[in-house]
Amino acid sequence: MQQAPTAAWRWLWNGLGWLWVALGAAGAFLPVLPTTPFLLLASGCFMRGSPRIANWLHAHPTFGPILTDWYQKRAISRKVKRRATVMIVASFSFSIYIVGAMWLKALLITCLIVLLCWFLRLPETESVAGSAENS
């Protein structure tokens, strides 16, 4: 039988959750920070600290669909995947451009290739909103 968390644990989980939400929101605008992993972390923290806030996050018009796709389908939308791919390539390209050491450039290129190979293989959700079935 699982016990309810104490007030101190709830504060900790909720504090971490808000930290991850802030980083995820910043990641929507900054190329270096990924949004989805931070939102997944926030969701997990809020599920332990405040189910009410977790429900709010999952119902949020911007963040909710990303979380729902991942939890229900273990997939991301084509739009999110395309945007993330552009940001990954842009941020790695900038990093490769500004570092001076060739070994570091090679390491960054290797990381970029590995990351893209993994990321591009993630399943995509299929949008049915614009399909003929819904007309």
Number of helices: 6
Q: What Rg is obtained from the alpha carbons, in whole angstroms?
A: 18 Å
Strand content: under 5%
Alpha-beta content class: mainly alpha
Structure summary, number of beta strands: 2
The ordered string of helix (H) and strand (E) elements is: HHHHEHHE
3D shape: globular
Count of individual domains: 2
Overall mean pLDDT score?
A: 86
Strand order of the largest sheet: 1-2
Runs with pLDDT <50, length 5+?
A: 130-135
Largest sheet: 2 strands, parallel
- How far from one another are the termini? 49 Å
Q: Helix coverage percent of residues? A: over 70%
Short description:
This protein is an all-alpha fold.
Give an account of the 3D structure.
It comes from Salinivibrio kushneri. It is a multi-pass membrane protein. Keywords: Cell inner membrane, Cell membrane, Membrane, Transmembrane, Transmembrane helix. InterPro entries: DUF454. It is found in: Cell inner membrane. By secondary structure, the protein is mainly alpha-helical. It has two domains: 1-74; 75-125. It is built from six helices and two strands. The chain has helices at 7-27, 35-49, 51-59, 64-73, 78-98, 102-120, and strands at residues 76-77, 124-125. Strands 1-2 form a two-stranded parallel sheet. Helix 1 (7-27) runs antiparallel to helix 2 (35-49), helix 2 (35-49) packs antiparallel against helix 3 and helix 3 (51-59) crosses helix 4 (64-73). It is globular, with a radius of gyration of 18 Å. Residues 130-135 have low confidence and may be disordered.
